[in-house]
Write a structure and sequence with these properties.
It contains 11 helices and no strands. It has about 210 residues and is an all-alpha fold. The protein is elongated, with a radius of gyration of 20 Å.
């Protein structure tokens, strides 16, 4: 029993983290955050706890704090590939598409660095390609999004990504065919397309 163990060793960071994970599974995200903070207080080097904090914050509905915590982990370890991936995801979910692009590009860079031994680097590479494409797509950079989608489809030709690529291609055609430079409503039209809802429903798990 974790609670009993902590009565005898209140400074055991691993036990506080385990308690936090158990609370998070029960949906007690606020209590989980408190336990994770105690874990870090007793051992600031437990870098994965920052990810736990981010996940619990997101579960609690606070994507801003989620991004803040995972950025702290990245500051500690510049090669923390999972941290970059999570930061890209949190930023995307917060609507911070430029930040999501930046973090996903860093994740891709680390994954491609052969001098760094990373297990499952191929998985991180393609998941971050997907996050990068989503952020570009949702911010209206459809041409670049299509290039990212193509890279993914080379590896996973039957992925649902082809559907997202077709949406981006549709938007490009729409812009070319229906929006002229003289159209005073160009910003409104673009804003409508970007917020239409299709792109925001995308999820890396579809990969």
């Amino acid at each position: 029993d974790v609670q009993r163990y902590l009565k005898y060793d209140k400074k055991n960071a691993a036990a506080h983290r385990l308690k936090g994970q158990l609370l998070a599974r029960l949906g007690e995200s606020k209590k989980a955050i408190s336990s994770y903070k105690k874990a870090l207080k007793n051992d600031p080097g437990l870098i994965d706890v920052y990810k736990d904090l981010g996940d619990a914050s997101l579960q609690y509905g606070n994507s801003v704090d989620a991004l803040k915590y995972i950025q702290q982990a990245i500051k500690i370890d510049k090669k923390y590939i999972q941290g970059y991936m999570q930061a890209a995801l949190y930023a995307f979910q917060s609507g911070k598409y430029c930040s999501s692009i930046k973090f996903s590009e860093k994740c891709i860079s680390v994954a491609m660095n052969k001098s760094i031994a990373i297990s499952n680097s191929d998985i991180y590479y393609y998941e971050c390609l997907h996050l990068n494409a989503m952020a570009r797509h949702s911010s209206g950079h459809f041409s670049m999004a299509i290039k990212m989608y193509d890279k993914i489809l080379q590896k996973y030709p039957s992925s649902i990504i082809f559907y997202h690529k077709d949406i981006a291609k549709y938007y490009l055609r729409y812009i070319a065919e229906n929006i002229s430079l003289s159209n005073s409503n160009i910003d409104d039209d673009l804003d409508y397309m970007i917020k239409e809802g299709l792109t925001l429903s995308m999820d890396p798990s579809h990969l």
